[in-house]
NAD kinase (Gordonibacter urolithinfaciens), 314 residues
Amino acid sequence: MRILIVRNNSNSKAVDASLLLATYLATQGADYTLVDSSDLSCRGDHEGLNAALADGVEMAVVLGGDGTILRTARQIGTSGVPILGVNFGRLGFLANTSDEGVVAVVAAALAGDVVAEQRTNLRIDVVCEGERDRWGDDDLMSDGPDEEGRPDGAPSASGFPCGSDARTFFALNELAVTRGAHGRIIDFGLSISGAHIADMRGDGLVVATATGSTAYALSAGGPLVSPGFVGLVAVPLAPHTLHSRAIVTASNDVVEMDLSHNADTREATLFVDGELLEFERPVRRVYVRRGDTPTVLLRYQREGFYEHAARVFF
């Protein structure tokens, strides 16, 4: 058995726990790979790093907070490798408690005393100004294969290419499209599965999974959604209107943001699970849909989602 250990190397308790866990795994005859979360930043060759991390791994143990789990998921979230989070951060809504010690939690997981939860993730396709819209242009909406990359094809394994030519991104929590550096409101069109919903003005839009419904989307007034839900939640950010509400979609719906009429001085900014996406040109359109392969999170605590939510949020 090979275990991947990802630790928040800026957290001394997580570092100490990783060394303790490594010693325990060695006594159990298990192989392990130890990775610092700072090495999972958006810089570098993510395709190679992704393949190396997931290859031959049967479980990933993440020592840190929710941010460390999100970084790990961005690397291996579509590989099928289950992720066991042990909380050494603040909120730790995605992670298991570390009260019983990291060895006890991992030992329980190795013994099968955990619940595997299939979590919906996002596939995000971005088209910038001056680029052909492979997903929205009428002459390209055919049933045939598109070698240049259609939404129904396989997404980029990296999920966060940062400066590469890829335009497909992965998120476990959410995509947030917000105001840019000028701080002015943005104009955008919102459509779902080809049906135009509204032309909106405001601070932007959050499109979240059920997992992400407890994060930015919740703060923006969105609903708290059970993790088993496989649709999406679209929440306008500070809309300049009196009648805006969050929208909960079906599992096969596609949320589209049209930013083509947005003035250059109101350029939108995109964040994927809190990480900034940088492009050389303004973003023209964004398509968000459910990812093809769910992310597997392991839950050790006997506390269910609603008990956990009641304790944290109410």
